[in-house]
Amino acid sequence: MDIIRQRLQESADTKKRIIEDSILLKQINDTANLIIEQFKARKSVYFCGNGGSAADAQHLAAELSGRFYFDRPPLSADALHGNTSFLTAVGNDYSFDIIYARLLQGIGREGDVLIGLSTSGNSKNIIEAARKARELGIKTVAMTGESGGELKKISDICLCVPSTDTPRIQESHITIGHIICEIVESALFDKK
Fold first, then answer.
1. pLDDT over 70 for what percent of the chain?
2. pTM recorded for the entire structure
3. How far apart, in whole angstroms, are the C-alpha atoms of residue 115 and residue 109?
């Protein structure tokens, strides 16, 4: 029972630090506003991550492309790792480090948004995707842990969760992502 209470308390403490971080709260709001602006301009939002962060990326893309709180038209959002044949072919023929950058080069358009999830902020394939996005005029948002890693230096916005513990960071990424989805959905659609 102690481990259960301890982990729940750690999760709550991480979220409390987010609540108390006015800069991070503004960045979350800025991210939502960026996405709203780009959806209004008929642009797309792409997500990428590895492992648990890939699952979180896919989850958040589905909230936007499917629905979140209420029925409404779909939004153009997708997770870049959805095509496993592409990932394994490019990973094998070129390098795993460029899987997302290469796909983004093929489908991304100026004004789109790339959201890269990496708890360390140092995942090579997420960094390469962010670099390619900048070349293409695609806005970049990173969701990372406390330091932000390399992604913090090259992203337009870096949402650095104030933790160094991977599970606590990932839990917070989903919470932040859900908040962004709610703001976006509410801004773009009438709940009726």
1. 99
2. 0.97
3. 14
Residue-level length of the chain: 192
Helices 22-40 and 166-188: crossing angle, nearest 10°? 50
Question: CA torsion, points 58, 116, 146, 150, in degrees to nearest 10?
Answer: 150
Q: By C-alpha distance, which of 37, 88, 32 is closest to 60?
A: 32
Q: How confident is the model at residue 91 (pLDDT cuts 50, 70, 90)?
A: very high
Q: Quickly state the pLDDT bin for 192 (edges 50, 70, 90).
A: low
Amino acid making up residue 20: E
User: What secondary structure, in 3-state letters, does the chain show?
Assistant: CHHHHHHHHHHHHHHHHHHCCHHHHHHHHHHHHHHHHHHHCCCCEEEECCCHHHHHHHHHHHHHHCCCCCCCCCCCEEECCCCHHHHHHHHHHCCHHHHHHHHHHHHCCCCCEEEEECCCCCCHHHHHHHHHHHHHCCEEEEEECCCCHHHHHHCCEEEECCCCCHHHHHHHHHHHHHHHHHHHHHHHCCCC
Spatial neighbors of 60 by CB under 8 A, at least 6 apart, are 47, 77, 115, 174, 177, 178, 180, 181
